[in-house]
Amino acid sequence: MGGPRGAGWVAAGLLLGAGACYCIYRLTRGRRRGDRELGMRPSKSAEDLTDGSYDDVLNAAQLQKLLYLLESTEDPVIIERALITLGNNAAFSVNQAIIRELGGIPIVGNKINHSNQSIKEKALNALNNLSVNVENQIKIKVQVLKLLLNLSENPAMTEGLLHAQVDSSFLSLYDSHVAKEILLRVLTLFQNINNCLKIEGHLAVQPTFTEGSLFFLLHGEECAQKIKALVDHHDAEVKEKVLTIIPKI
């Protein structure tokens, strides 16, 4: 599967394959210091940092300028160059933490859904490098689920999305102790995919999905048992969502 139709599920596979789903259930509700808005306006040298001639590893002040530039510009050329620079700097462990503390992960993550395919790929590369840091994985969960939910609403993307290879730890997102906001998202993901499969007619004639694929996990017995167990969840909204899904399992 190629072209725009396949771009989304490839992106999902890359993110999931990066190990970003390993510890999403540890997501905390409190905002970190680094989630503050970037108030520093970039100097004229901010764009100079993206022109490919600057070989040094960026410091915190330069990274902040770069993030502000990425957040404030709509120029696709500048966005792509800024993401390349951030991705290269995110390969260094010290910068992985700095970018998180500056609130950079959501800024980069928002570029996943950009209409420009090259920008999407550069954003994924930056997130892939950032996901090496365990603390960053917590925030990158959120970005992965947003992407997956968007893709799961599109029947044309369903088959490719279900072929994406996913670590078995993904099923830990359906555990009862997971934060409500995450549970509702993964339950909606399951619901959307089932609805798309019905539209596409794949429930009657299922294509071959390999072990380790998203389809293999979501339609396995372990996932079914986890969802059924949530019928006793203490939150009424989660329980209501589960009751709408159980008849379809």
Keywords:
249 residues; mainly alpha; 13 helices; disordered N terminus; phosphoprotein; mitochondrion outer membrane; mitochondrion
SSE blueprint and pairings:
Layout: H1 3-17, H2 45-48, H3 60-72, H4 76-89, H5 93-101, H6 104-109, H7 117-130, H8 134-152, H9 155-163, H10 180-200, H11 214-218, H12 221-229, H13 236-245
Helix pairs in contact: 1-7, 1-8, 1-9, 3-4, 4-7, 8-10, 9-10, 10-13
Function: May play a role in cell survival and cell growth. May suppress the transcriptional activity of p53/TP53.
Keywords: Endoplasmic reticulum, Growth regulation, Membrane, Mitochondrion, Mitochondrion outer membrane, Phosphoprotein, Transmembrane, Transmembrane helix
InterPro entries: ARM-like, ARM-rpt_dom, ARM-type_fold, Armcx_regulator
Task: Describe the protein.
The longest helix has 21 residues. This protein has 249 residues and is mainly alpha-helical. It contains 13 helices and no strands. InterPro entries: ARM-like (IPR011989), ARM-rpt_dom (IPR006911), ARM-type_fold (IPR016024), Armcx_regulator (IPR051303). It is found in: Endoplasmic reticulum membrane; Mitochondrion outer membrane. Keywords: Endoplasmic reticulum, Growth regulation, Membrane, Mitochondrion, Mitochondrion outer membrane, Phosphoprotein, Transmembrane, Transmembrane helix.
How much of the sequence is in beta strands? under 5%
What is the helix/strand order? HHHHHHHHHHHHH
Approximate helicity band: 55-70%
Structural class: mainly alpha
Number of E-type strands: 0
Given as residue ranges, the uncertain stretches (5+ residues, pLDDT < 50) are 1-11, 17-44
| Broad shape | elongated
Strand count, sense and closure of the main sheet?
Answer: none
Mean pLDDT comes to 78
Backbone CA Rg: 19 Å
- For the termini, the CA-CA separation is 28 Å
The number of distinct helices, counting runs of at least 4 residues, comes to 13
